[in-house]
Amino acid sequence: MYLQMTRDEAERRFAEWIGAEDDRRDRLHARVAATGGPVLAPTLESLRALNVWYHARAVEAQGDPSPGRPPWAPPPNPDFVPRPGGPRPASDAVMRLWDLITVHVADVLRAQLPGSTWICFRNGDRRDDRNGKPMLDIGWPENPADVIMLAHGSVPAAVSSGRPFLPDDLHDKVVRTLSQLEAYRSARG
C-alpha cells in the first residue's frame, strides 16, 4: 500500500496517525477498563493478558459492520466473495481494534527502549514496501520496529480466517524484536 503513495501522502497520513496517538491510547484504556480487561502498564508481561482480551473483543468486533479503517490499513477488496465456511476479511471494527493495540505495543517498546520514536520509514530502495509506513525507530536504522505487525498478535487472522489464536504472540514477538536488537547491538560492539 505504501509503495503506491507519494511521499507527501505518506507523510500526511503519518502525521495524522501520530497526532491521534493520545486519543487512541485513551480509547483503548477506556475500552479495556469498561470490559473488565487487564491493567495496561507498559510492561512486557502486560502483553499476554492484553492479547487474550484483544482476541475476545475481536471476535465480537468481527460482526460489527460499521465502516472506517485505520489510515495504515489497505482498503477492503470490493471484489472478494468468501466461500461458505472460508476465510473472511477482517472487519473494519477489527482493524480499528488492531490500531488501538498498536499504541500499547509502542508504549511497551518505548518503556524498554527509551528514546524510541515514531518515524515515517524511508530507505534508499524504492522497492522496499516499508517506505512510508509508520514504524518505531529503536536504534537500528535498517530495521525499525514494525509495531503495526507486532500488534497483530495472531488475532485478526484468527477471527477472520480461522487460523489458530496464539495467546502469547504479542508478548513473544516483542521479546523477539528486543532480542534481535540486542544481538544487532552486540555484533556492532
Count of spatially separate domains? 1
Helix content: 40-55%
- The number of distinct helices, counting runs of at least 4 residues, comes to 7
Low-confidence stretches: none
Look at the structure and give the mean pLDDT.
92
Tell me the strand order in the biggest sheet.
1-2
Structural class estimated from helices and strands: mainly alpha
Major sheet: 2 strands, antiparallel
Got a strand count? Answer: 2
* Overall outline: globular
Topology (SSEs and partners):
Layout: H1 7-19, H2 21-34, H3 46-61, H4 92-112, E1 117-120, E2 134-137, H5 147-150, H6 155-161, H7 169-188
Antiparallel strand pairs: 1-2
Region (Disordered): 61-88
Biased composition (Pro residues): 67-87
Question: Can you give a write-up of this model?
Answer:
Residues 61-88 are annotated as: Disordered. Residues 67-87 have a biased composition (Pro residues). The protein has one domain (2-70, 87-188). The chain has a two-stranded antiparallel sheet. It is mostly helical and 189 residues long. The longest helix has 21 residues, at 92-112. α3 (46-61) packs antiparallel against α4 (92-112). It has helices spanning 7-19, 21-34, 46-61, 92-112, 147-150, 155-161, 169-188; strands at 117-120, 134-137.
